[in-house]
Amino acid sequence: MILHTLDIKRTLMWLLLCLVPALAQAQIGEARHNICIGVSGGMTMNRIGFDPTIKQNWHCGPTFGVVARFTSERYFKAFCALQLELNYAKLGWRENVLNAQSQPLPDTYQRDLHYIQLPVLARLAWGREKRGLMGYVLAGPQVGYCFKEHTKSSAFTLNSEGNPDRPNGMFAQYGMPIQKKFDYGITAGAGMELTTNIGHFLIEGRYYYGLSDIYKNSKKDVFSRSNNGAIVAKVTYLFDVKK
What we know:
By secondary structure, the chain is mostly beta strands.
């Protein structure tokens, strides 16, 4: 599990490092000074990477926000840009509840975590600059803050000791509000952009990997790991402020 986590971190960091140099060499390419702003919206599918493991289904929730994009140059055939966003996202987890014998139970449990997020993204795009289609990739760091949480659950099936009947006895999370509200990690994705005379229409998919945990993770704590991992699908509309 630890090696798998390190491999994901290395892959995302290499992707980010490959994108950033293109933005840092603006004197080599054809300069651009384009600024676009707009709005975006979509859906997140999140799981918490608990260790010890808690069986989960995808937790689905909305995301929406504002976007500002600054295109600095055309470097060979790639258009290089910096993209800033301020988003709301509902993350969390939804348990696939099993008993101690790993048999399904009718119990339900869901924790909603409401975040404000700030991604700072390097973007590379290829295609038609003025009218037509572009494909693009983007990656960068993201920080967030959980400003509210909410629990939805049914009555629990209890074992002979009067505790929730769960595999390896993991039920401590039910009475634990999150302990680390500040979240940070790396996000990366790809999409398509259609440029028209009334603006830019984008559709994209992303993956966010949290490098922080929602619970304390020392040896004396319940979980050694509890990070967010989200798949995001979204659409965006941008209009030109400066060409």
